[in-house]
Amino acid sequence: MLAYEFMRTAFMAAFLVSLVCGPVGWFLVLRGQSFASHALAHVGFAGAAAALLVGMPALAGFGGGAVLGGVAMGLAGQRALGRDVVIGLVLSLALGVGALCLHFLTRSAGAATSLLFGDILGISAGTLWGLGGLSLLCLSGLAVLARPLLFASLQPDVAEARGVRLRLLDVLFLSLVALATAECAQITGVLLVFTLMIAPAAATLRLGFGPMTGMASAALLALAEAWAGLALSWQTGWPAVFWIAALGCAAFAASCLLSRLLAGRSVAVLTTP
């Protein structure tokens, strides 16, 4: 399998993306903003389709569109984020704009499939370097934001009283989420960003790990799912994104079962005379 250049590139791309998806997804789930990655993926889809239409790389358009969406969501605040109708309309409009741009492309069918469902086996060397740069940027930004972000996530009122600017923090974090979503979509596509961004993080949070252990575990679990998905795709001929999605759901279900077993054992120990 690794004798082929495109497979080695795919494994390296999965490694770079998983390093970012794990910790960023952990904060998304902790803050109750899991839907943000899905929303930004739809907005980024419109940007990617527009970029292809004018001859630019899809990753650049995806990242630019998603960052603009992230800044807008951060400025809107939590009150606007809770309006399901508004969010649904914006997502529908973004998909519509993306569909319009793809309509004018001569290679619209292949481009639409790659954007919506990913094309990890078709990642080029140039795109790989772009993913590496985005990973470095996201991890550096998250390292700077981690302490105030954790404080604001757990105790927002106290954090604001201590001088933490929550609105600015939201804008910066959602901008990071937008870049991470742009990376993740190169593997999973727009429609399945949840599989690599949210599922590993949700599974580790169910187990009650601390912040550092939780983020590291989420990154390792995302990497294991991505690499196992590629290997299973090679063996079966089925799409890698299907296996990644299936493994993500299985990991989350296993974490739910394990957390219940551990909770039941703790209760049994406490009630034993």
TrEMBL record:
The chain crosses the membrane at residues 49-73, 85-106, 126-152, 164-181, 187-209, 216-234, 240-263. Keywords: Membrane, Transmembrane, Transmembrane helix, Transport. Belongs to the ABC-3 integral membrane protein family. It is found in: Cell membrane; Membrane. It comes from Acetobacter suratthaniensis. Its main location: membrane. Pfam families: ABC-3. Gene3D superfamilies: ABC transporter involved in vitamin B12 uptake, BtuC (1.10.3470.10). The keyword Phosphoprotein does not apply. This is Metal ABC transporter permease. It is a multi-pass membrane protein.
